[in-house]
UniProtKB/TrEMBL annotation, chain A:
Single GO MF descriptor: metal ion binding
Name of the protein described by the UniProt record: Cytochrome bc1 complex cytochrome b subunit
GO annotation terms (biological process): respiratory electron transport chain
Domain Cytochrome b/b6 N-terminal region profile: 14-240
Catalytic activity: a quinol + 2 Fe(III)-[cytochrome c](out) = a quinone + 2 Fe(II)-[cytochrome c](out) + 2 H(+)(out)
Keywords on record: Cell membrane, Electron transport, Heme, Iron, Membrane, Metal-binding, Respiratory chain, Translocase, Transmembrane, Transmembrane helix, Transport
Stretches with biased composition (Basic and acidic residues): 523-538
Intracellular or extracellular location(s): Cell membrane
PANTHER family: CYTOCHROME B (PTHR19271)
Entry EC number(s): 7.1.1.8
Record bears the keyword tRNA processing: no
UniProt membrane topology term: Multi-pass membrane protein
GO-annotated cellular components: plasma membrane
TrEMBL record, chain B:
Reactions the enzyme catalyzes: a quinol + 2 Fe(III)-[cytochrome c](out) = a quinone + 2 Fe(II)-[cytochrome c](out) + 2 H(+)(out)
Membrane topology: Multi-pass membrane protein
EC number(s) on file: 7.1.1.8
Residue ranges of every copy of the Cytochrome c domain listed in the record: 49-130, 146-224
GO cellular component: plasma membrane
Tagged with keyword Translocase: yes
Keyword Membrane applies: yes
Species this chain originates from: [Actinomadura] parvosata subsp. kistnae
Classification via Gene3D superfamilies: Cytochrome c-like domain
Residues that hold heme c 2 according to the record: 159, 162-163
Binding site for heme c 1: 62, 65-66
Protein name in UniProt: Cytochrome bc1 complex cytochrome c subunit
Taxon lineage: Bacteria, Bacillati, Actinomycetota, Actinomycetes, Streptosporangiales
InterPro entries in the record: bc1_cytC-su (IPR009152), Cyt_c-like_dom (IPR009056), Cyt_c-like_dom_sf (IPR036909), Cytochrome_c_Oxidase_Subunit (IPR050597)
Single Gene Ontology MF annotation: heme binding
Length: 552, 269
């Protein structure tokens, strides 16, 4: 570690320059040597970060030509099939960006692809954090910031999708209006407030524009900064491995190694986004035509991140409540309120509360800086996969018309199947994932206690064939031995059958039961094989021990 | 006695009068029938064979489903009054004769015996049954004579809720679907509008005038022939394939890049 103590010249020079002017040398010296652990999945969040940077830059380009106005004009640009058609200025200026501004179409397509990758990057990053338990103390607040970022990204996507005022974005706007107006009591007021009168009104584009380019990105930027600063201060979690403890971070320093990697990854992200934008057409608004509330197209879909809401809307049976008659008390359209609010509520609230629920169930108040391998907390992993299945079924069913049309199945059957799968799928996913996790734990156990198959078959004097096992390499074994039992509350009853304090009421009993199920060690790494482990290293290679036998 | 009176009393006069009267009645009858019956008009124009040939082709290929006199059965609708345009549409797109019963007959390569002549003959036979829309002329469907901008507005107002914004098609209930419009010829698009094949409603000439239909054809053909300015169009079905590409290409490529740049150097052994 001696080489870390000498400051490289490349750091000393700039820090000296800044220090003499800003007095920040200590800060820089300390932070430029910040250690970052290395694992490919730790870079997934950066997809979202770099996409956000690209979104800000391309978005600024687009604002130079976009006119957020719903004034009707006759199109007079270079796209022939729309010549003379009446449309809003917003749509006409989006067409102008696409066809008459140099590089405009590329910028529009980069903006849209970056938006898709922004939310996709956030999602896969969030899944990584969830499945490795990296949201645990002390990172719960950063996790909540992440959930807020995701929610805001959806709002940002929805407002941006509506801005070009093409027929497809109008369909999304119409659903937004439908959801707003379905809210009990306040629905009508909210809708009239949002649209400045009867739908679609003349205000919604300029209002969404302010939200899309000013308010939401401002909050996003602030929260992204907070997210990064907290990550920096609290340090990144690391995967279990050789020499890695809860007190240290093993990896590469920010400068130069991690900075080079991060810089390269930004360029990769830029490359993928501009490559997609160059070769793959996205959101061809000229094909959709201008929005008029009377028109609606087959295949109207939202961007992928709103697909699960579309799917829940399509799955929902047409329930509504008409108490005292529509004229007196209005209609409560359950067929809109439930799909619009319930799945989103389950997913976002579930995400926000999960760290606290887990802590409540496990009673685990320790700090965690070593990430869990997903298999080592099987219930958490199963809950995550079940939630992904729930989301996935809704998501898939958001495209059920395309599935029906392209795979030649009945649209009705896809809906019926979805209505069943949305409940059965998560349950099945839970059970299957749980078994897979335990199976993977058993496989770890086998590797730790028996070693790895070497491919060498030996024949023993009495005729039995065995395969020689070699011990796993040090870092792999250390990676596996990073496993910790999932903590459990002290739930054992005392000698007279009284449960511990706080576990006596119905809620306490439930908590105790959940803790027993969730926590504990299901498959101890060395369980029942201790005697083998002792002589493992001695026995390997000789191949003479029956312990190594596959018939054991 | 005059000479006329003498002829009138001639023994053959009564026969001559009878023949004359019959001829007159016959001519009047023929004139009436000719006016009322298009089939006989076709007969008079020398197309007599088309109807007869059409009838015999109908007996061979269509009768088992559509009934002995094209009156329809439980499996297939009546063809009385559907017109030549319906026959031309169904047969030229290969939908009829149908390969199998199902929610909807798909477009397919026509049967070997189907060609312009046989189609025309069956069309003439069906037309002779009860009239109906005729096959449009070339000028009636010429995209060059239409106004694509106006046609686009009509297309969006009337067609895209099933056929999608570029005519990429879409699903309907119970296995039915609106087909894509990429292969349909201008004549077939016109015929589909006036006859309403399968699940499609009829857009007759009072709903959408022939000129408007021609404009719609102009829009459909212009848009489908357009080179996509933004790159691969991903089927032109919108955000579903775009989202798929975002994950399958975008996220996958970036995950691979992450694996690559965080990979450890292989230790020399």
């Amino acid at each position: 570690m001696s080489e870390l103590k000498a400051t490289p010249k490349a750091i000393a020079g700039p820090s000296n320059f800044l220090d003499e002017r800003l007095g920040g040398a200590n800060f820089l010296k300390r932070n430029l040597r910040k250690i970052f652990p290395d694992h490919w999945s730790f870079l997934l969040g950066e997809i979202a970060l770099y996409s956000f940077v690209i979104l800000l830059l391309t978005g600024t380009f687009l604002t130079l030509w976009f006119k957020p106005s719903m004034m009707e004009v006759a199109y007079d640009g270079s796209y022939a099939p729309l010549k003379g058609v009446m449309m809003s200025e917003a749509y006409a200026s989006s067409l102008e960006i696409s066809f008459d501004v140099r590089g405009g179409l590329l910028m529009r397509q980069m903006h849209h692809w970056a938006a898709l990758l922004f939310v996709a990057g956030m999602t896969v990053h969030m899944l990584r954090v969830f499945f490795t338990g990296a949201y645990r103390k002390p990172r719960e607040i950063n996790w909540i910031i992440g959930v807020l970022l995701l929610t805001l990204a959806l709002a940002e996507g929805l407002t941006g999708y509506s801005l070009p005022d093409d027929l497809l974005s109008g369909a999304g706007l119409r659903i937004t209006e439908g959801v707003a107006i379905s809210l009990p009591l306040v629905g009508t007021y909210i809708t009239f407030f949002l649209f400045g009168g009867e739908y679609p009104g003349e205000d919604v584009i300029s209002r969404f524009y302010s939200l899309h380019i000013l308010l939401i990105p401002g909050i996003l930027l602030a929260l992204v900064t907070a997210h990064m600063v907290l990550m920096w201060v609290q340090k990144h979690t690391q995967m279990p491995g050789k020499g890695r403890t809860n007190q240290n971070v093993v990896g590469a320093p920010f400068y130069p190694a991690f900075m080079a990697k991060a810089g390269a990854y930004f360029l990769f992200t830029l490359g993928v986004i501009s490559g997609l934008a160059t070769f793959t057409q996205i959101n061809p608004i000229w094909l959709f035509g201008p929005y008029t509330p009377a028109d609606i197209s087959a295949g109207s879909q939202p961007d992928w991140y709103m697909g699960f809401l579309e799917g829940s809307l399509r799955l929902m049976p047409p329930w509504e409540i008409n108490l005292f008659g529509t004229a007196n008390a209005g209609t409560l359209p359950l067929s809109v309120i439930i799909p619009a609010l319930v799945p989103m509520g389950i997913i976002m609230t579930g995400l926000a509360l999960y760290p606290f629920l887990e802590r409540w169930v496990t009673g685990d108040n320790r700090e965690h800086h070593i990430a869990d391998r997903p298999r080592n907390n099987p219930h958490r992993t199963s809950i995550g996969i079940a939630a992904m299945t729930f989301y996935g079924v809704l998501w898939l069913l958001g495209a059920n018309d395309e599935i029906a049309a392209n795979f030649h199945v009945s649209l009705n059957h896809t809906t019926y199947a979805g209505r069943v799968l949305v409940f059965v799928g998560p349950a099945l996913a839970y059970l299957i994932t749980y078994r897979i996790c335990l199976g993977l734990q058993r496989s770890d156990q086998a590797i730790v206690s028996h070693g790895v198959e070497s491919g060498v078959i030996k024949r023993l004097p009495h005729g039995e064939f065995i395969e020689v096992h070699t011990p796993p390499s040090e870092d792999i074994e250390a990676h596996m031995r990073g496993k910790e039992p999932v903590p459990m509350l002290p739930v054992d009853e005392d000698s007279s059958g009284i449960p511990p304090k706080g576990m006596r009421g119905p809620l306490g009993k439930l908590r105790g039961r959940m803790s027993r199920a969730y926590g504990g060690e299901k498959i101890p790494l060395d369980d029942g094989h201790g005697h083998e482990h002792e002589d493992e290293h001695a026995a390997i290679g000789s191949g003479g021990s029956d312990d190594r036998s596959i018939t054991h | 006695m005059t000479r006329i009176t003498a002829w009138r009393r001639h023994p053959l006069a009564r026969y001559a009068v009878l023949i004359l009267a019959l001829a007159l009645v016959g001519m009047v009858y023929a004139a009436f029938v000719q006016a009322g019956k298009p089939a006989d008009a076709a007969l008079a124009a020398g197309k007599v064979d088309d109807v007869a040939e059409g009838r015999s082709l109908f007996e061979k290929h269509c009768m088992s489903c559509h009934g002995t006199n094209a009156q329809g059965t439980t499996t297939a609708p009546t063809l009385i009054g559907v017109g030549a345009a319906a026959v031309d549409f169904q047969m030229s797109t290969g939908r009829m004769p149908a390969a199998a019963p199902g929610p909807q007959a798909p477009r397919k390569p026509p049967a070997p015996w189907v060609n312009e002549t046989t189609t025309r003959q069956i069309a003439a036979y069906v037309q002779s049954l009860g009239g109906g829309p005729q096959v449009p002329g070339a000028e009636q469907v010429d995209p060059k004579l239409g106004d694509a901008g106006k046609g686009g507005e009509l297309f969006r107002a009337n067609c895209i809720q099933c056929h999608n914004w570029v005519g990429a098609g879409g699903a309907l209930t119970q296995g039915k679907y609106a087909p894509n419009l990429n292969e349909a010829t201008p004549t077939q698009i016109y015929e589909a509008m006036v006859t309403g094949p399968q699940a499609m409603p009829v857009f007759n000439d009072t709903t959408i005038t022939p000129e408007e239909k021609r404009s719609m054809i102009a829009y459909i053909t212009q848009v489908r022939e357009q080179r996509d300015p933004g790159g691969f169009a991903l089927g032109r079905i919108g955000p579903v394939t775009e989202g798929l590409v975002a994950f399958v290409v975008g996220i996958a490529a970036l995950a691979l890049a992450a694996i690559w740049i965080t990979a450890k150097k292989r230790q020399k052994s």
